[in-house]
Amino acid sequence: MSSLSANQVTVRYPGQTRPALAGVSLDIGPDDLTVALGPSGCGKTTLLNLFAGFVKPDSGTISFAGQPVTGPGAERAVVFQHDALLPWLNVRDNVAFGLRLQGVAKAERLARADEVLRLVDLPEAGGRYSWQLSGGQRQRVGIARALASHSQVLLMDEPFGALDAFTREQMQELLLKVWQQARRRIFLITHDIEEALFLATELVLMSPGPGRIVQTLRPGFSQRYRAGESARAIKSDPAFIALREQLLATLFDHRRKPEEELA
Amino acid sequence: MNTLETSLEQRLVAATPKVAPDEIAPEATTLRGGVWTQYRRGWLSGISLLGLLALWWGLSHSGIVPPLFLPAPEAVLAKLVTVSTQGFMDATLWQHLAASLQRIVLALLAAVLLGIPLGVLMGVSPVARGLLDPLIEAYRPVPPLAYLPLIVIWFGIGELSKVLLIFLAVLAPVIIATSHGVAQVSRNRLRAAQTLGASRSQLLWLVILPEALPEILTGIRIGLGTGWSTLVAAELVAATRGLGFMVQSAAQFLVTDVVILGIVVIAVIAFVLELGLRLLQRRLAPWHGQLD
């Protein structure tokens, strides 16, 4: 029972005819890197906010390790797309911020920060400030901060969405390395099909109107990356491309359907 | 972020006609202009100030304007020495200056101690905002000198009235800027801190206040500008010491060089206050204006 679970969850936002999420169930196990993929409006952000505790379900339950989730908590760290580092603290202090909140002694938390910064390939950046970093570096600091505080889950809200294609690919590889070394379960949302296919051990395809899960699959490409294959080789593999096109077709299919139901 | 700040400053400046808008938006120039532009602007400012001084010197030495109306620059400089050492109206320049500075410092401290908590309250609580906003908006647009007579009736002509007047002038900008800054705090930063385990008081002290600090300092800077001009005007009405009093009594005896000396000292202090707060802001909030 140590999984992070959504059980028949429905969320309605005031003033909207269709629920943002309708009857969604999802389990994220201890070794999973679960990716929710879908177009805007499919409810993936709502699902992440439910897991984080920012949003409460109208019906259904969210639970972690058997306990109901009632609000944000340190065991579920969130990595945001942007604007989440504290600009008045340097990188080390940002990474150590969670430990500071928990009252960990200064020397200990800074040592831990340096350790995690090495893990995200930013060993030299500790004394710099977030506004002196590139977008990719900032996201690494965000990941490091989420890892440093001994969280058990990383919830990642389109973490690489604002990065250029080249940096994004580097970050995807870094994430797989970090995931493997830090042994932390991850729930990541994205609208980038290649990213979802490449990263996910479990991929959840979502569709809008109302937001729901339409397909769940286990692509297995990240295991191939971990086994030593290069990212480019995997992403240009015919099997990868075929699955990408198939997912795209499914998404378009589901996008048309609700409109037909209305007509 | 920057446009928001500018609009806040414009809003605050709207009530403070004694400060030119150009002097209030320095970030805009430092952000848009490069080092070269700043450097050149420095030179141009120097040239125009020297030009003014030359004009003054020329006029006073030409004999067109009698010294009673326009004493020569060197006469004013000489007066600086005598007023500093022998004094004017039973007090030296430094004692007049100290009296004025003491009033503004007391008023500033009180305005900060009351204004920041109230501003935070308004920034986080819609109820507090709904209750307090009309009160502040009701008194803020009124020029402080308009309600000075009422304050004098209630509290007399002593120190309390003057400090209270300055306090009210500084308070409104501090409250408004603080509540604005607090309301603008990034939701992602708050949420990130929450998921790292921050309690409510940790959120306030470690996230909300540091993030609102640049705005708070802007409010203090604008409040000090208004407060200083109000103070000097208040000392014209009722005081036995202070720069405004010195200028006013010198005018009554037609000691024009002391009048000009007083005005220059008042201007220099205003400039130093403004510059000091800008430096403080740059020191304490170097990230301001550099966020993505």
Please outline the helices and strands.
The complex is a heterodimer of chains A (263) and B (292).
Chain A: E1 4-11, E2 21-28, E3 33-37, H1 44-52, E4 59-64, E5 67-68, E6 76-79, H2 91-95, H3 97-101, H4 106-119, H5 135-148, E7 153-157, H6 165-182, E8 185-190, H7 193-199, E9 202-207, E10 212-217, H8 221-226, H9 231-235, H10 238-262
Parallel strand pairs in A: 3-8, 3-9, 6-7, 7-8
Antiparallel strand pairs in A: 1-2, 1-4, 4-5, 9-10
Helix pairs in contact in A: 4-5, 5-6, 7-10
Chain B: H1 2-14, H2 21-24, H3 26-32, H4 35-62, H5 73-85, H6 93-124, H7 126-139, H8 144-155, H9 159-183, H10 187-195, H11 200-237, H12 243-252, H13 256-284
Structure description:
- The complex is a heterodimer of chains A (263) and B (292).
- Chain A has 263 residues and is of the alpha/beta class.
- Chain A has 10 helices and 10 strands.
- Chain A has helices spanning 44-52, 91-95, 97-101, 106-119, 135-148, 165-182, 193-199, 221-226, 231-235, 238-262, and strands at 4-11, 21-28, 33-37, 59-64, 67-68, 76-79, 153-157, 185-190, 202-207, 212-217.
- Chain A has a 6-stranded mixed sheet, with helices on both faces.
- In chain A, helix 4 (106-119) crosses helix 5 (135-148) and helix 7 (193-199) crosses helix 10.
- The longest helix of chain A is centred in the C-terminal third of the chain and has 25 residues, at 238-262.
- The radius of gyration of chain A is 19 Å and the shape is globular.
- With 292 residues, chain B is mostly helical.
- Chain B contains 13 helices and no strands.
- Chain B is globular.
- Chain B starts with a helix and ends in an 8-residue tail after the last helix.
- The A-B interface holds A 52-54, 71-74, 76-78, 80, 82-88, 97-98, 101-102, 129-131, 135, 142, 145, 149, 151, 155 and B 186, 188-189, 191-199, 202, 206-207, 210-211, 213, 285-287, 290-292.
